[in-house]
Amino acid sequence: MGNKASVGDEEEIEVDLPPPMRPIPDILPPTGALEEGTTAQLATEIEEIVQKRMMESEEACADSSKGEGEKLDEGCGVSVSERKRAYVLEELLETERDYVRDLGEVVEGYLGLMRDPATEIPMPEDLRGGRDKIIFGNLEAIYEWHRDVFLKGLEKSVGDAEEVGLLFKRHERKLHMYVVYCQNKPMSEFIVSEHIDSYFEDLRQRLGHKLTLCDLLIKPVQRIMKYQLLLKDIQKYTERIGREGEVRSIAHAVSVMHIVPKEANDMMNVGRLQGFDGKITAQGKLLLFGPLVCSEGSVPLNSKPKELQVFFFEQNIIFSEAVGKKTQFSNPVYIYKAHIQVNKMSLVEKGDEEDPLKFLLRSTDPRKPSLSFLCSAPSQDGKDEWIRNLQLILQTQKDFLKAIQSPIKYQKNRLTHPN
């Protein structure tokens, strides 16, 4: 079975289903290295950079203690935390310049050659007809925005932690370009893998690049995690300095860069879903995703409980089964089993009197009278999260129905009882 990718405003293109992409935390190599790494390694790398710069500056700014407050540098007259924060801010700017250069190698290098009608390296026939566009997704738009807007914003706010925080806050919506990029990434990897040792290797040699196209295409995924780690370090040192206004600004930026990678990861999981006949992009926002032990029917005896991966969208709850084992290089794909429309669904919070972790989801669609799933969460906290989100969306559906049926009465109730 194939999968579809949307390229800009053009018609969706049918492509063979790709192998799944690894989750974000598993694909973060340290800067300058090609082997895989983890967020912990990346955090260690940032700390090592700060320590190295501290050591290099010791000759000019020897550390000494002054009173009971922060340790001050006699030569520099600033606290150790201020110096460390300054180094992290410098690292943010320097790595942004490197990042823009790397993206430029893709857009001005690979894309430039591929678009050149006079190129001596012809594009393989199976990359024509739109498949070549899936390779890069919206990377060109990401590159142009970073080059023309975000990098310039960082350069203007260099050394000013509060301005850096405000920069991320101002561009919060724009940073969601990365969610779109990551949603496309599994199909991109699959297509590139078919030609990485032939066509794309010829292009690499022609361009004189050290990194392969795969190494360059993973840069945006790595970058959104590095933003998060750099901002957390800036927040840590700002808190030690005690500047509350700056702390609030950076804390918001940290929050933004927690949300973006999570949503990107969620969309990569959506990209692994196979067999759902509906248009996945029409299901609304993905509210929750995770494993639940489910049995079809309202009582456990109806079917043997099985762990299913459940996608909770605004419009539908989709039940799927993981196929294939998780390895160092791949994750399972999710095979569609069933779905329940949210606006035709009821929730029974206590699905089983003997098991407090169970809850029941039942379809109220008259065409599917027997469709229901008895679900068990892995923990009480897990169940609470599912119930909270389910109740919220069901209440939203009820409010919407009331507003349609009796709009005047609904508005009066809203004014009388605003909460």
Keywords:
419 residues, alpha+beta, two-stranded antiparallel ribbon, 12 helices
Would you kindly provide a written description of the structure presented here, covering whatever features stand out?
- The protein has 419 residues and is α+β, with helices and mostly antiparallel strands.
- 49% of the residues lie in helices and 16% in strands.
- It contains twelve helices and twelve strands.
- An eight-stranded mixed β-sheet has the order 5-9-8-7-6-12-11-10. It has a two-stranded antiparallel sheet with strand order 1-2. The protein has a two-stranded antiparallel ribbon with strand order 3-4.
- Strand 7 and strand 8 (316-323) form a beta hairpin.
- Helix 6 crosses helix 10.
- The two termini are 48 Å apart.
- Mean pLDDT is 82; it is low at 14-37 and 63-69.
H and E string: EEHEEHHHHHHHHHEEEEEEEEHH
Give the biggest sheet.
Answer: 8 strands, mixed
**Which range best describes the helical content: under 10%, 10-25%, 25-40%, 40-55%, 55-70% or over 70%?**
40-55%
Strand order of the largest sheet: 5-9-8-7-6-12-11-10
Topology record:
Blueprint: E1 2-5, E2 13-16, H1 39-56, E3 63-64, E4 72-73, H2 80-115, H3 131-136, H4 139-156, H5 161-170, H6 177-193, H7 199-207, H8 213-217, H9 219-241, H10 244-270, E5 273-274, E6 286-296, E7 306-313, E8 316-323, E9 333-341, E10 345-348, E11 358-363, E12 372-376, H11 380-405, H12 407-416
Parallel strand pairs: 5-9
Antiparallel strand pairs: 1-2, 3-4, 6-7, 6-12, 7-8, 8-9, 10-11, 11-12
